[in-house]
């Protein structure tokens, strides 16, 4: 993935079963987007919509880059 986003990793213990729980990974909105990933030897730009992942079109990627440099600081 490039550029790498910031990750907040937290462990949450189960108070009813000591030594068990889960790991919470939060990825805040990044001012460095869009972020690219490799999918089947191609560079793709994913975007989440609820529980679904969609991929940006070429024009969406161009707009995201323009927004990155013209958006609020």
From TrEMBL:
Superkingdom in the source lineage: Bacteria
Q: Give the protein name, as stated in the record.
A: Uncharacterized protein
